[in-house]
Amino acid sequence: MRLTGLLLTSLAAWYLGFFIAAQVLQTTISNAEFQGIRKKPVLRAPVPKRQKCDHWSPCPPGNYAYRILSGGGKGKMAKICFEDELLISEGNGNVGRGINIATVNYKTGKVTSTKFFDMWTGDHSGEMMSFIRNAQEGTLLLMATHDDGSTLLKNDAKKLVEELGSKEIMNIKFRSSWVFIAAKGFKLPDDIQKEKINHSDRKTNRYNGWPAEIQIEGCIPRNLI
């Protein structure tokens, strides 16, 4: 009897242990499955595609992209970009102190000339006027200052730029940051950025003696003429 009882007790203990082990295994599997459900793959937004002239969003089809950046201090030179091509930049070696100008054939979208006019030393105001006057009808003119673009800029040159549509050229001061885009022989849309100016002020200047650089950018329809 004792042997039979011992056998029954051992059998019951073995069965109970097997049952508990099975339940623990099932619970572990269930928890693992639950954790797997909770750990869904993280959806990451794709890296934004770089746009022409570093715009945040692309221009609509049938438009030219432009971006004009003035100089900032001594180290940051002016940049003029059109259709993702740097027309004027330090890397190109065609940027300098004064007023930097690039001209673009509106029909082809190709640069026709670039030049900078030093307004701190020498008499380049008349030279700048000739450069602007020699631009053909159907030309885009993109302008940006680096350092000082006003000291030796004469009033007749200012009036010529004003005739192109500038609202700020008469207000330009020593070391003002100024950018401007104009069209010769046709009219640009009213709703695009055409001009911006930032005057030097000792209290607010970003750089020692110079204001912060400024920029304008936008899209120009290709069917204006």
Automatic annotation (TrEMBL):
Q: Where is the ILEI/PANDER domain?
A: 97-185
Quote the InterPro entries the UniProt record gives.
FAM3, ILEI/PANDER_dom
Q: What is an example of a GO molecular function annotated in this UniProt entry?
A: carbohydrate binding
Q: Does the keyword Signal apply?
A: yes
Q: Where are the bilayer-spanning segments? A: none
Where's it found, cell-wise?
Secreted
The record's keywords, sorted A to Z, are:
Disulfide bond, Lectin, Secreted, Signal
Chief subcellular location equals: secreted
Q: Which residues form the signal peptide?
A: 1-22
Which cellular components does GO assign to this protein?
Answer: extracellular region
State the family named in the UniProt similarity comment for this chain.
Belongs to the FAM3 family.
Matching entries from PANTHER family are given as: UNCHARACTERIZED FAM3
- From the Swiss-Prot or TrEMBL record, give the protein name: Protein FAM3B isoform X2
- Which source organism? Lepidothrix coronata
Encoding gene (name): FAM3B
